[in-house]
UniProtKB/TrEMBL annotation:
This is Beta-defensin-like domain-containing protein. GO terms for molecular function: CCR6 chemokine receptor binding; chemoattractant activity. It comes from the Eukaryota. Residues 29-60 form the Beta-defensin-like domain. The lineage of its organism: Eukaryota, Metazoa, Chordata, Craniata, Vertebrata. InterPro entries: Defensin_beta-like. Residues 1-20 form the signal peptide. It is found in: Secreted. Pfam families: Defensin_beta (PF00711). PANTHER family: BETA-DEFENSIN, GALLINACIN-1-RELATED. Belongs to the beta-defensin family. GO terms for cellular component: extracellular space. It comes from Zonotrichia albicollis (White-throated sparrow). One of its GO terms (biological process) is defense response to bacterium. Transmembrane segments: none annotated.
């Protein structure tokens, strides 16, 4: 009975992982910092503030004074 419980748990975790790849959640960590995800490096007037979950650069527009 315990083995059945473990097998069902593993199956559930595998289905959760597959669903996450088919329906990826949006990356809000960059948006929270008022940034945007760009492939490659950040170009003017943007500057790098981090990395997005998909590997892109999280860039924010620089403030000119």
């Amino acid at each position: 009975m315990r083995i059945l419980h473990v097998l069902l748990t593993v199956l559930f975790l595998m289905l959760q992982g597959a669903a996450g790849q088919v329906f990826p959640r949006p990356d809000n960590s960059c948006l929270i910092q008022n940034g945007r995800c760009f492939p490659g490096i950040c170009r003017r007037p943007y500057y790098w503030i981090g990395t997005c979950s998909n590997g892109y650069s999280c860039c924010r527009m620089g403030w000119s004074r």
